[in-house]
Amino acid sequence: MAGRSHYFLSIADLAHARGADPLLSYDGAGPNDFAATLQEALRQPGLFERWRVTQPEPDEVDPALGATDLDASVNARVADLHTDVDLITNLPMRIVRHRLNLLIGPSWQLRDMRSA
Q: What is the pTM of this model?
């Protein structure tokens, strides 16, 4: 995999940010809870596996989409009227995007990305 990246994300309304499938969606209480949920989704295959079995042909899902990073770290905090999220991982954006979309749908925005 590529080197580690530092993603800077913003969530406009975390209290209402939810993914399309309630069984996979984030249902927490605040920034710290979201950070822990996203960190687990990047470190462990559980969220990916739950999503994969809901697909019409689970065995045809690209297994690379299930990659994990045991060293991924996520911090989130309220800033003004939104939530700032700092994410450091070696996972590519396509995987980060997929996990974020499962958890909170399109409620997030990538602000910046740098080498970590």
A: 0.94
